[in-house]
Amino acid sequence: MRTKDRPVLLVRALASVLSQTHQDWHLYLVNDGGAPGPVNEICAQYAGAFGDRLTVIHHEASKGMEAASNAALHASRGDFVAVHDDDDAWHPHFLMRTVGFLNNTGNAHCAAVAARCQVVMERIEGDTVVEEARMEWGYWREMIDFGGMLYTNSIPPICLLIRRSVVDSIGEFNRHLPVLGDWDYNLRIMMAGDIGTINENLCYYHQRSFSAEDNVYGNSVGKGQTKHDIYGVYYTNSLIRPLLRDSPGHIGLMHILLKRMNQQQDEIRWLNQQLGEQLSNQLRQYEPTLHTINQMLRGPRWAWRKLYPFRRLIAKMRGRV
């Protein structure tokens, strides 16, 4: 669990872990450059519930989200790994269902498993979290395909449980990425094996909208949108560059594919234009008929309006007004 100066949300996140029906876990809480006092005080309040299942790591200065994840990875032990940010939450059955899935011999080919989640929109008022709305996660798919993951990250960290053997094989999170580190990690997981799915809302992806990037309670997705755009380009470039360096012939192939895609887009636009023109022509053919019908209805509509007092009187007599 990664946290930094968000005690209001940290309390909820810790309660989310403690409420799990599967109790064989250990939490590695990384305070990434935040004030240590509030974190220690909150953990002390839950000391009895945690027992020996909590390790707190304080960074004197912030090293970034992915470096915080790596600090926990190096300290951790166990068969499975999950990243639980301090602003998200699990359903009480999350670990029971995901651990059960990966322990099932029929799912041995799966490197990890993802559960469906709900998006919870909220705002912070003082020391209170106010929920505003809930909605289904729009990117959810019952089958996680590599092509779709290459296009966009469809799995928030809170939804995912990863085999420890896979974590050991693919290595650390990319500490050079201030954002998009979870996307990069998910792609590397899929290099190791499939990501299974559980089609149940077992986790909650909480989001808050803040325009100020320095607001500690903002989401990295919402408050760092410009940074996401910039590093999205850098990350795409980093994927293409070694491919073309190792196989320069791919430049011609990619050029042909991109050119063909542009041609198909032009063809689709042309077809849409043709269909629009055909529809307009057909509607114009019916304009005289529609005009005649409208003229024929003018008399009955005028009479119906004039009869309004009588219609109201009849309605009163029948008890409908």
Describe this entry's structure for a reader.
- The structure is a single chain.
- The chain is α/β, with parallel strands linked by helices and 321 residues long.
- It contains twelve helices and nine strands.
- The strands form two sheets. Strands 4, 5, 6, 7, 8 and 9 form a six-stranded mixed sheet that branches. A three-stranded parallel sheet has the order 1-2-3, sandwiched between helices.
- Helix 1 (7-18) links the parallel strand 1 (2-3) and strand 2 (27-32).
- Helix 7 (164-170) packs across helix 8.
- The termini are far apart.
- The mean pLDDT is 87.
- The average pLDDT is 87
Largest β sheet strand count, sense and barrel closure: 6 strands, mixed
Total strands: 9
Fraction of residues in H or I helices: 40-55%
Low-confidence stretches: none
SSE pattern: EHEHHEHEEHEEHEHHEHHHH
How many angstroms separate the termini?
Answer: 63 Å
Query: What percent strand?
Result: 15-25%
> Which word captures the global form?
extended
Gyration radius, rounded: 29 Å
Structural class: alpha/beta
Work out the helix count.
12
